[in-house]
Every structure is written in structure tokens, then in C-alpha cells.
Amino acid sequence: MAFNRISDLGDLTGKTAVVRVDLNVPMVGGVVTDDTRLQAVKPTVDAIAAAGGRTVLLAHFGRPKGKVEPEMSLKPVVPALAQVLGRAVGFYGLCEEKGSEDVIVIENTRFHPGEETNDPTLAADFAALGDVYVNDAFSAAHRAHASTEGIAKLLPSAAGETMGAELEALENALGTPKKPVVAVVGGAKVSSKLAVLENLVQQVDHLIIGGGMANTFLFAQGIDIGASLCEKDLKDTALVILDKAEKSGCVVHLPSDVVVAREFKAHAENQVKPASEVADGEMILDAGPATVEMLSEVLKNCKTLVWNGPMGAFEMEPFDMATVALAKAAAALSDAGALLTVAGGGDTVAALAHAGVKDSFTHISTAGGAFLEWMEGKELPGVAALEK
Prior knowledge:
The chain has about 400 residues and is an alpha/beta fold. It has 14 helices and 17 strands.
């Protein structure tokens, strides 16, 4: 996909860029506890400043549903943002007279009922704040809102630095990837990732299914999974996906051996056994070592990896083994330049951090819903609006 970048907007001297960003940061007692998303704003603000421009930031916080909810104000975020940016940052309501700061934050866009309905009048109000528009919030790009899609129709528009890097990484992962491509899809439920699986079997060469959803596929193939988490009503759906994969030439990998326990808790008494030998009352809580060894070989024979979801109950030791081991195998290949690695989704980011390999992956997306919809093959309105 060809999309505009900040450099395509030309000289911004004397101009103001309206920038959609993600300031949805965790806070405790009015203090930001993780500034990762604030750090992601800095490259774009710096690029606009280098081009001579000022910046007005649009962002939402929480789900106020079109009403003013004081506890969801962006005001408490401003001091932390100013510290990260190393610049004075002003804070104003949409219609307030603005000051002379180089960076301005506008109050929560979702305080306006027209934001989520993509109201053209609100989009025009946002557009009136500046001369050009920059979207740097991939996490909100799957929503056709006034601040993500409506405004882009009214001003010269471009992707911000963080958004641009994200789009390039995603294009390299599934758009025009180096083959063979392998996808890891894990998590508890097949139902939450049906569209992802249906799209991926037509896009990738290898599909690794882990976590609770692997149990549903094992069950669909007639394997007794004991007391394991399983969506038995999706048996036929799982078989359809496996059939689609076969017709598309996609090899689906399920656990050949598993770690089972009779209690769902950390350090529960457990054992490794073939996936076909799970007894009544036993729960599959992780993939086994033989599976990890086999999957590590699959990774070695691929050029591109897309990862979403853990291989087991990674929050509880020792049922994090498969997730950690496979993540480390991927990271080693990524560090060696042999595998392009792109991962996304909340659980995935947490799992890779737990494995200590976040810095080794080529790209990690913190965008949950947008990343999933991209994996589903859907057009993202906030991205489509930036196309040349």
C-alpha cells in the first residue's frame, strides 16, 4: 500500500499539524504508570517540528460514550507527555482559544457524541485546528471515527512516524512477505479468532495453533482431550478451516505432545504425554517439549513470522514453557537476520515480555483490535484514508 508520510506534506513552516495519537496510558492515582504509548508519539512530534510545524494532538481516553466524564480527562496525561517530548505542552478544550505552545493536547475526543459516529461537523471542527492531518494511532485505525477517518478527507493527510513503521512492518509480514510465512495463533477460544484463522490459511505456508484453541482442533479430529478447555460446538467449523488449509497448501501444526494437570493453578502437579493419551479429568495447559522442538524446526525453514496469542497458560509456571521456548527460538532467528518477526495483541506482548524477547522481534504492535482486524484481512478505515 502506498501512503503519504510527513515528508510528503512538504515545508510546514508556519503551519499546524493535527495529529491523531494514542494516549490511552495506564494510570494510578492520576499518575502515568507506563509511558510506552507516550514515547511512541515523540518521533512524529519531532518530525513535524523539524519541518517547521506546530502540533495539535487528538486522542481518546477510555469509553466515555459521548459524555464528559471528568475521570477520563486527558489533562493528567499532559505532564508525563511534556516530560517525554521535552517540550512545553498546552491543554485545551476543542473550542477554547489556544495558546502559543508548540504542542497542544485537545481534551478527550470521545467526550463528543459525534466522534464515534464520524459526524462530519465534528470532523470539520477537528480539521479547523490545523493545516494538515497526521494519523499516528494505528490502535484506533480500525474505527471510522471523526478523528481517524472523517478529518482525513478534509486536510492533506499522512501517516505519522510510528504509524508508518507499523504499516511497513505489516506489509512485510502479510502484504508482500518473504516466503515461507509461518503464523502462530494462540489463545483460549477459536470463536474469538475465527476470521483470523480463515484468512491466514489462505495467506501463510504454515499455521501453528496453540493455547486453548488447539484443544478444539484436536477434539474436532476425534482426539479425547479430557477436561480441557474446548469449544465443542465449533467442531465442524474447525474441520472446515482444516479443509481450507489443505486446499490452500497451508500446513496446520497442532501439539503432538501436551502438558496436562488436574488443577488450573501455578505449579500444579503435571506430566507430559502424547496429545492422544489425555485421561478423563486432565486438562491440557501447554504444548509439550517434542512439539516445541518440531515447531522450532518449522521456524528455521521460514522467512517471515506473524504471532498472535500464547501457546499455553503462560501466566502460570510451568505452563509457560512452550510459549517462552518458541518465543526464544523465534528471537534467536530474528537476531540472526534469518526471520522477520511481527507480533501483536495484548496477551502476545505480555507473553513476549515474559519470555524476555520483546527487543529481539522485528516489530511488536500494541494495537489489539486493529492488529486482529488486519490479521483478518479487513480494510482499516483509518489506514485506507491515508492512501495516496
